[in-house]
């Protein structure tokens, strides 16, 4: 085989492979076929955890919609999307992580770090590929120092960071299939 034919085949083979692929890849890492999957819907997530701010479920729902709109070419529809997400916030807990011992016998030991943990159960339905359907719980946490600030002062920021990480995990395990 001559050098020119070898070079031509080295260029054409990868191009033909890419051209023959039906799955579209994007810079965000999705592997959606936009000819098949064109819409998504997110039902209201409710706060079934018994804790957290009253608007936490609505904030999660809106954050999830925004994330998928920014990172896919899918159109958001009210109900019955090609991809459907529904679920609930199932855990909101504050737990001590490290104890600081007091040198004063009259002072009790106290927590040096606190952890806010949130878990969200998600039911995912893919109308184009039922094998992708899943029901999974996603969880994430953030630590903070209660000696320097109260949870009320930073709760919104902690929740936003936790939601951001949970939504990225949902995105990765559903439309990126990692």
TrEMBL record:
InterPro entries attached to this UniProt entry: LPS_assembly_LptE
Pfam families tied to this protein: LptE
UniProt signal peptide: 1-19
Keywords: Signal
GO cellular component, one term: outer membrane
One of the protein's GO biological processes: Gram-negative-bacterium-type cell outer membrane assembly
Keyword check for Signal: yes
Listed name of the protein: Lipopolysaccharide-assembly
């Amino acid at each position: 085989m001559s050098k020119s034919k070898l070079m031509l085949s080295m260029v054409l083979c990868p191009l033909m492979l890419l051209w023959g692929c039906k799955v579209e890849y994007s810079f965000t890492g999705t592997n959606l076929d936009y000819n098949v999957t064109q819409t998504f819907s997110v039902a209201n997530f409710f706060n079934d955890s018994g804790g957290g701010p009253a608007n936490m479920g609505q904030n999660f729902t809106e954050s999830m919609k925004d994330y998928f709109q920014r990172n896919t070419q899918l159109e958001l529809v009210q109900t019955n999307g090609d991809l459907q997400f529904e679920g609930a916030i199932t855990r909101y807990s504050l737990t001590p992580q490290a104890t600081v011992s007091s040198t004063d016998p009259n002072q009790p030991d106290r927590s040096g770090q606190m952890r806010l943990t949130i878990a969200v159960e998600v039911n995912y339905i893919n109308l184009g590929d039922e094998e992708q359907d899943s029901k999974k719980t996603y969880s994430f946490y953030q630590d903070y120092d209660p000696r320097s600030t109260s949870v009320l002062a930073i709760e919104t920021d902690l929740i936003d960071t936790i939601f951001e990480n949970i939504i990225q995990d949902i995105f990765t395990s559903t439309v990126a299939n990692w």
